[in-house]
Design goal:
192 residues; 12 strands; 21% helix
Length: 192
């Protein structure tokens, strides 16, 4: 559903400058908005931009490409991004694939990503398999540096992933919990 933003929320207070003009939401939960730079630093998408320009990025739950767009604004347009989404939005550039299946195939085929962004939601519900040991192990096989997971407050992702990755930080944005991990921080964890 595309939500009409009230005039007072579209603009910076005391200015005619528009912050954003279109919001896409499911069950009242914001999935994306345009322009993407609106409210930069105050959205879960902004908190998923990595602190460096990655060589190869995997975004699971690509949607309209909010995170990729922000990465390109910050790090330039030459960023190599593989976007995966089971519900591909026309023109987004994402590949139509089930995220869990894609990660399994990527691991078997030897693909690697120095940044993996997990933003898997169905409306206001996070995908259950994200908070599993199996998925954490699969990410460890294909990840070479940073993993970012956008989940919900109260999720067990932090506890589960901390056994396989070095926990770095977290940011709460509304009901979202954005978690950051480093792959090479848990050398004792098995890669398979």
């Amino acid at each position: 559903e595309v939500v009409d933003i009230p005039e007072d929320l579209r603009k910076i207070p005391g200015s005619d400058r528009v912050v954003f003009n279109r919001v896409y939401s499911v069950n009242g939960v914001t999935q994306s908005f345009w322009p993407v730079e609106g409210l930069f630093g105050f959205t879960s998408h902004a908190h998923m931009v990595p602190p460096y320009a990655p060589l190869r990025t995997l975004i699971l739950g690509y949607g309209e490409g909010q995170v990729a767009w922000l990465m390109r604004v910050v790090w330039g347009t030459r960023i190599d991004v593989v976007g995966i989404d089971s519900l591909v939005i026309s023109g987004s550039g994402a590949l139509s694939f089930d995220a869990l299946s894609y990660v399994k195939v990527a691991g078997v085929s030897g693909e690697n990503f120095d940044y993996i962004c997990v933003d898997l939601w169905v409306g206001d519900l996070g995908c259950d398999f994200v908070a599993t040991v199996e998925f954490a192990k699969l990410l460890r096989v294909i990840g070479t540096n940073l993993i970012c997971v956008n989940t919900y407050v109260g999720s067990m992702v932090k506890e589960i992933y901390s056994d396989y990755f070095e926990y770095l930080r977290e940011v709460v944005v509304g009901k979202n919990l954005v978690l950051w991990f480093r792959v090479n921080g848990k050398e004792e964890a098995e890669k398979t």
